[in-house]
Input
Amino acid sequence: MGLCRFCDKPAGFLKKEHRECREKYNFGTFTIRSMIASSLFGKVDKDEIFQIARESYIGEEELKSLILNGLDEAIDKALEDNILTEEEEEKLKVIFLEFGFNTDELSSSKTYEKLIKSLVLRDVLEGKIPNRVKIEGVLPFNFLKSETPIWIFNDVKYYQLKTYRHYVGGSDGVSIRVMKGVYYRVGGFRGYPIEETKLTKVDEGILCITDKHIYFGGRVKSFRISYDKIVSFTPYSDGIGIQRDSANAEPEYFITNDGWFTYNLVVNLANRV
Ligand SMILES: [Zn+2]
Output
């Protein structure tokens, strides 16, 4: 006879769990997640949460992942209306601390990253230059002495909107040998140009945002753009589009997989310059 996956007691013929245990577990996970998700509106009672976890057969690892899910929801809710306040930041940090997340768990957590990103944006909005990330390794960029790297996105795809001209009609497929003194009949030029724009992936690499420039370092292309050379920014769910201040510049796109952060960061830094 199998044992109940929750309480470890005999579960009955061909059964893997007791219905009551499953119900307790479902109720416990729901309650804890909701308590954490609304933690910015009240106080979280750590002991109560530990007690619910114990009574609902929720293990330590699972409790941590429930807490992260709840925090993620709390941060999203807070960011809907505005950037995180210092009071909200404090509450979130206390939760990370109280539930014993270590440095490794934090640095690999998307939720913690979202918290840090929110704080970086708050700094920029308050006119401060954020100093919240530690850059590991050597960046392939030649920064100015007076500039500060603020964020680095890895594995960024760089796209350009390219216009291709090609001709339809006319003497398709015929090669014309240029000879001196030969007159080409007008009919040979009957084709008309078609302009077609295509989003073309140019490269993939690192995007570094500083207080003065956007740097891109890829396998084939590396460049920096000063904020005052950008005329417009376009937000996308997964990145940002820019248009440089030049008559024949094609729109360029950086896909960072976080349009919210990239757009807010870059536009607000550009506004300061
Ligand atoms: Zn059971």
Q: What stands out?
A: The pocket of zinc ion is lined by residues 4, 6-7, 9, 17-18, 21 (CB under 6 Å). The two ends are 71 Å apart (CA to CA).
